[in-house]
Amino acid sequence: MSDNLLRVQPIRNGTVIDHIKPGCGRKVLDILNLSGSDTTISLLINVQSKHQKRKDIIKVEDRELNEIEIEKLALLSPNAIVNIIRNYAVAGKKTIEIPPFISEIVQCPNENCICNNERGVSTNFKLLSKENLQIKCTYCGRKMEEDSINFI
Amino acid sequence: MKHVVSIEDLDNKRIMGLLKRASELLPIAKGEKKSDILKGKILSTCFFEASTRTRLSFESAMQRLGGSCIGFADPSATSHLKGETLSDAIRMVAGYSDAVVLRHPREGAAKLASEVSEVPIINGGDGAGQHPTQTLLDLFTIKEEIGKLENLKVGMLGDLRYGRTVHSLSQALDRFNTKLYFISPESLAMPEYVTDELTGEWSTHQNLENILSELDVLYVTRIQKERFPDVEDYKRVAGAYRINSELLNNAKPKMRILHPLPRVDEISTDIDNTKHAAYFRQAFNGVPVRMALLEQLIRGKK
Q: Which cellular component terms (GO) are annotated to the entry (chain A) (predicted)?
C-alpha cells in the first residue's frame, strides 16, 4: 500500500474515489466530466488492492462530488468508495449505493418514449438488479444493462 | 385512487373480480337492462391517435352505466398541435371529468398522465406499449368461452413480434398456468424480452397443423404488409398462416378462435359461422369489461 501512496502525492483538499472497478477509471473521468473542471486530477489504473485484485483510483483536488455525480458513479462502479479529504486527512468516507429510482441522469434509449418527447419530463429508471446491473424506464418499460447505459 | 396503466397494475385477484363483475353486467352491456350506476359521472376519452373500437366501446360502456362522455377522437382539433404538453392537457381534462381514457402514440404516455392526474387514468394504448383493457377483454373472452382461465393450452399465431396484444396477453396468461404455443414465421417470432419473463411452459412452432389438435384457444393476429420489404415475401408468409374451415377438422370441438380485429384475410370468412369463431363476441366483450373497470375506478367499488 505504501508503494501506491508514493506513486501519487497525497492531496491536501478534495476527493479520492477509491476501489473503482479496474479499467473503469477513464470512463468515470469522462462521464463525471472531471477533467473539465479547473483542478488537478490524478488517475491510477490497475492498482494492486487488498480487497480486489486490481482497482482504479481517481484523486480530484479542491473539489467534492455532488449527489448527482455520486449517483452516476454508483451506476458506473457500484463498489467504489468516495473519500473526502480535508487538510490531508480523510474527513469523510462515503460508500455509494445505487438508489431504487434513478432520476434525470440516464437517457432512455427508446426514441418513442414519452420522456424523450415532452418538455419538462425527467427520465426515471427503476433499479431491477444490482448484481448484474439492470434498470428499467418507468415510462416505457425499456430495460437496460450496464454496458448500454447512456448518461445525460 | 388507482390508475390502470399496465396489466401488471392488476393482480390475479383483481382481474378475476373484474371478470366476474363483467359477467354480471352482461345484460346491461347488451341493453337488455338499464342502469344508472354511474349517473352524473363523466368520462373523458382523449384519443391522441385514432382507435375506433377502443373509443366506442369505452363510450358505450360509460353510457350503458348511465354516465356521459366528453373528449376527442383525434388530436388535430386540439391544442396538442399548438404545443401544449400532455401533462398540461391531462391536468385540464382531469378537472372536467371523473376518469380519463388516454390513447397516445408514445410509449409511457399513460404513466406520465397518471403522475399528474387527479382522477383515474385508464391506458387505452400507448404506442407499442401497454393496452391493459384489451388484455382484460381477451381474458374475459377466454373465460366466457372455455369456462376457466387456469391450465389452458393457448396458441398464438401470426405477427408475434410487433403485436402488442399477444405480448401482454401471454404475460397475463402465464400467471394462470397456461401452456403457450407461439406459431409464427421466424422473422415475426415472439421477442425474447417477452419470453424471458414467462415462468410457465411455452414453445415455438413454424406451423399450426401439428399442434392445432392440442389447443383450447387459438389467438390469431394480423400479419401486416408493411413489415415486409418485399410484397412477394408478404404474400407467401400471409398465405402460410391463413386459417380456413378445412384446417379446423383436427381441432377440439370446444376450441375457440380469438382475434383482436380488424382482420384482413388471416381468418377465412367460412369460419365465421362455426362454433370456433369467438372474435365477434370478443369485440363485444370490450363493453362489459370496460363497464366493470369504470364502475370500480369511478365508484371505488371493489
A: aspartate carbamoyltransferase complex
The model carries a pTM of 0.88
Nearest chain A Cα distance for residue B193, angstroms? 9
**pLDDT tens digits along B79-94:** 666 788 999 999 999 9
Annotated catalytic residue B30: no
- Known catalytic residue: B221? no
Over range B200-216, report the average pLDDT.
95
Per-residue pLDDT at A127 exceeds 90? yes
Fold (topology level) of B7-130+286-299 = Rossmann fold (3.40.50)
Which residue intervals of chain B are DSSP H helices? Answer: 12-24, 26-29, 52-64, 86-96, 109-116, 132-146, 164-174, 192-195, 231-240, 279-299
CATH class of the domain whose range is B133-282: alpha beta
Domains of chain A in sequence order? 2-95 (3.30.70.140), 101-151 (2.30.30.20)
Annotated ligand binding at B106? The verdict is no
- Percent of residues in chain A assigned helix, strand, coil, to nearest 5: 20, 40, 40
Residue B72 vs residues A58, A93, B111: alpha-carbon distances, Å: 57, 57, 20
Residue A2 above 70 pLDDT? no
